[in-house]
Design a protein that fits this description.
Distance between the termini: 22 Å
Shape: globular
Order of helices and strands: EHEEEEHEEEHEH
Number of strands: 9
Number of helices: 4
Strand order of the largest sheet: 5-8-7-6-9
Structural class: alpha+beta
Length: 169
């Protein structure tokens, strides 16, 4: 049987308590297990044992250079089920001064943010497969700024996204 999905990610952070507080406030994650220097968090809508593991390596840790001078992970992406939820998280991330950008990839509407250690993550809403048209597929050839209000008018604030749905190439 092939791989089904990503079950969890693990990040090295400077201060685990600071990172836990951030992910709780920014994305509503909850701690399901913790120990000195480590915490395991679960997203509210997740059935995983945990979605994010955090391991503290201390304040002396330098910034990640992945993608600038070394290979490494660029970002993690979490899905939300509605554009209303994407908008709510955009407001929350802006209030935390963590929102780094917002892009319209045609089939995916994405927010990009940075945690307290500067590690980037994405929160996205996927267009439901039954709304994917040839025009939408053609739009994937360019990235545009995301206008959530426009997308809510077009698709509806509470239209359930294509979470876990494969969109044709």
């Amino acid at each position: 049987m092939p791989v089904q999905r990503l079950n969890h990610a693990v990040l090295y952070v400077r201060d685990v308590e600071r990172s836990v507080a951030f992910y709780q406030e920014a994305l509503g994650f909850r701690v399901v297990m913790g120990m000195p220097g480590a915490a395991f968090l679960q997203a509210e809508g997740s059935g995983n044992d945990h979605d994010l593991g955090l391991f503290e390596i201390g304040a002396q840790a330098g910034p990640s250079t992945a993608g600038r001078s070394t290979v490494g992970l660029y970002h993690l992406a979490w899905e939300v089920d509605t554009l209303a939820e994407l908008e709510r998280i955009a407001v929350r991330l802006s209030g935390l001064d963590a929102l780094a950008g917002a892009s319209d990839h045609s089939t995916t509407k994405a927010l990009y943010a940075r945690d307290p250690d500067g590690l980037e993550f994405e929160v996205s809403w996927l267009l439901p497969a039954d709304l994917v048209t040839e025009e939408v597929l053609a739009g994937r050839s360019r990235i545009r700024p995301l206008d959530i209000a426009r997308e809510k008018e077009r698709y509806g604030a509470h239209t359930r996204g294509g979470v876990g749905v494969s969109i044709p190439a």
